[in-house]
Specification:
Helices cover 48% and strands 10% of the residues. The protein is mainly alpha-helical and 104 residues long. The chain has one domain. Strands 1-2-3 form a three-stranded mixed sheet. Strand 1, helix 1 and strand 2 form a beta-alpha-beta unit. The longest helix has 23 residues. The radius of gyration is 16 Å and the shape is globular.
Length: 104
């Protein structure tokens, strides 16, 4: 996963009845290369990646981000983390993974 992908907002697909041509068209309209999740209006989230393990990982990240956003709202709203700090956190996570010290 490239650094740029961790800084992109999750796209929002307009509502369409589940499985309908309209829902599929709405999802396709917001898909962009490198974005592994789409928020489905009035429904949920669609997550996809190269392997099932990566899908589960991205799904967990989306869940944690949503929970953090809800908590942030309750204490005055979220605050943007500077890009250099995001990159540093990402590099640190990758070093944990490379060292075998990351936990699921």
């Amino acid at each position: 996963m490239a650094n740029a992908s961790i800084q992109q907002p999750m796209p929002l697909a307009a509502y369409g009845p589940r499985g309908s041509d309209q829902a599929i068209a709405n999802i396709r309209a917001v898909l962009k290369p490198g974005v592994p999740a789409v928020l489905l209006a009035s429904h949920g989230v669609l997550v996809f990646h190269r392997t099932p393990d990566l899908v589960v990982m991205v799904g967990g990240i989306v869940e944690e981000a949503a929970q953090a956003a809800l908590h942030a709202q309750s204490i005055g709203g979220p605050t943007e983390i500077p890009n250099d700090m995001k990159a540093a956190a990402f590099q640190r996570a990758m070093s944990f993974e490379a060292a075998g010290t990351a936990t699921a």
